[in-house]
Amino acid sequence: MRRLILSLAALLLTTPAAAQRADKATPGWVRVRMETADGPIVLALDQRHAPVTTANFLKYVDDGRFDGVSFYRTARNRKAPQYGFIQSGIRTDARRFLDMIPHESTRKTGIRHLDMTISMARKGPPGSANGNFFITVGAQPSMDWTPANPGYAAFGRVVGGQATVKRILAERTGGGMNGTLMLKPVRVERAVRLDGVARPTGRPRPWLIERRRDG
Questions:
Q1: Contact, 103 vs 137, CB < 8 A?
Q2: 123, 85, 127, 138: which is closest to 105 by C-alpha?
Q3: Which residue, 39, 71, 113, 191, could crosslink 66 as a Cys pair with Cβ 3.0–4.6 Å?
């Protein structure tokens, strides 16, 4: 019995949902701070279990491609509106686009869509995700892989600013995407990594050139 208890304790410490802290680095995870108009959000990205998806997200962060974008969609559960997801990223802005990435399914990574999970959004088939993402509020098992559904690529979790996420979820919506587009998108002032060294891609950033021209 004692051996079983010890084994279960070890398992809890090593799962992707192991305790992460907004103010402390954890091996195998990379923290990112997003400063939004509704408050800060701190993410912990699981580079050990979702290396491709995490690396892609960090490219956008290190290049400043998320600076000035918005949370533009909030999809609430009709029966329980305190649950759902919020969505952000580059939308269809080709100036900020990098590449589409291979799909790291929940079957492959073991990272489920639980409360405060960050995952990649996409319009097309698996492998078409690029610079758009969403954060779940409450467990969303329908987004996990099944034999009939490839699901979405979860790659981390919110470790700070959960109240900010919930405030964004409560923003008023209407218009497109079945009425889930926000009437007043919440601006992301900047996103910056808190762990490791930034590695910008060096690729052109035309939105900055156009901004200087306008100024």
A1: no
A2: 127
A3: 191
Query: Virtual CA dihedral for 65, 71, 75, 76, nearest 10 degrees?
Result: 140
pLDDT given for residue 168 in this prediction: 97
pLDDT for 213 equals 55
Would you list the DSSP string of 156-189?
EEEEE-HHHHHHHHTS-EESHHHHTEEEEEEEEE
Structural domain boundaries in the chain: 28-214
Structure-block tokens of residue 88: 């952000």
Q: How many Cβ atoms sit within 10 Å of the Cβ of residue 155?
A: 28
The dihedrals phi and psi of 137, each to the nearest 5 degrees, come to -120, 110
Fold classification of 28-214 is Cyclophilin (2.40.100)
Q: What is the pLDDT of residues 44-69, one digit of tens each?
A: 999 999 999 999 999 999 999 999 99
